Amino acid sequence: MSLNKVILIGNVGKDPAVRYFDSGNAVANFSVATSDRGYTLANGTEVPERTEWHNVVVSRDRVQFVEKYVKKGSLVYVEGKIRTRSYDDQSGAKRYVTEIYADRVEFYTADRRQEPADNAGAPSATTSAPAPSYQPAPSYQPSVAEPPAQDSADDLPF
What pTM did the predictor assign? Predict the structure, then answer.
């Protein structure tokens, strides 16, 4: 068994380029930047921020969403597969391109209650469910008035 799955949360680097074909199909391409924060080691060595650029390819029904709403600077959640292809350039040298073939593209916000004002009319997701909010669940603290839990087989729901 194998699995090819990529999840990215990052900023769009440029407006998507959309191409339409005679067959009626369309493909959108755009880049997404993901960054690892810089930090300082205990010995004082500074490790700079590192940004990776990812080429994203969108096809089928997701192209309309990307074309209409995704713009440079948008924070997006992308889920898909990684694929590498090769081609020969003009000088005959073999070149390799790694791309993310997106199955899902959504706007991403860390907290859904704080949607950006500039996306007020835009849907928050494509045809799939919204992106997870990644907020930690509040911890449960029993109140003093609450009776202690009883270890009884009569309390089991089955």
Answer: 0.66
